[in-house]
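Record type: monomer structure entry
Structure origin: computed from sequence
Chain ID: A
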Amino acid sequence: MSASLPVALSDTLVGTAVPQAGRLRFTAADPRLANLDGAFFDSAAAARRMAETVLTARAPLPNGGPVAGRALLALLRQG
């Protein structure tokens, strides 16, 4: 069994990445990242960036309105 790599933002563990079929399979530790659970990434850094983007997109604006997911869509289009 391959060792899992921690995926953290600052000092907070948000998930793990396990090598599988030449890529890393992400397992979410944060329930806000449930949609990313099982996703494959090329690196732990790529998983961290996507987790950060998702968490940022879900954060409320100072005025209480929702954040548009444009940054997330741009990342998804890049592949």
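Annotation 1: Residues 44-58 form the longest helix (15 residues).
Annotation 2: The longest strand covers residues 12-20.
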